[in-house]
Amino acid sequence: MAGWQMECCGTPFQVGSSVSWRLRPPTDVGWLDTVLHDSVAATIDAIEDHHGDSSVPPTMATVVSIATVHCRFAPEPVAGSGVVTPVVAAEKWNSDLGDRRFAGFLVRVVAAVPNDE
User: Fold this and answer.
1) Known InterPro entries for this protein (predicted)?
2) Which of 37, 57, 68, 82 is 20–30 Å from 113 (CA)?
3) How many domains does the chain have?
């Protein structure tokens, strides 16, 4: 989840929270590999998007892990400058870490399976 999405119109959540998010395929996530150097972009299968296609049905899910991502920008993301910090809650406003700006959250969720009874 991009930091600006949370700051704009996101709702704080925590590990164990049930969420209802409109998810879209990941785009523009290659910068994560630039700042983290660990192929994390390949592990992202969706992006939460408050401003995307409103016809996409929300996905109900349970949050199982959250981490913040901070990195340097000059003005583009600086290679190798990323820091990932596990947290138990995603707050609306997040502080920078020295010269590393808050960029967003890496969130792992387990989608609810519809009951077709």
Assistant:
1) DUF6578
2) 68
3) 1
For 54, the token pair is 């409103």
Q: How many CB atoms lie within 10 A of CB 62?
A: 14
Of 37, 26, 96, give the one whose Cα is nearest residue 68. Answer: 96
How many residues are given for the chain?
117
Q: What is the DSSP letter of 3?
A: H
- The three-state secondary structure class of 39 is coil
Domain that includes residue 12, residue range: 3-111
Does 116 map to a domain?
no
Sign of the Cα pseudo-torsion (32, 33, 36, 39, in order): positive
Distances (CA, A) of 45 to 26, 32, 115: 6, 14, 23
Q: Annotate 62-73 with DSSP letters as a single string.
A: EEEEEEEEEE-B
Give the pLDDT band (50/70/90) at residue 11. Answer: very high
Q: Is 83 inside any structural domain?
A: yes
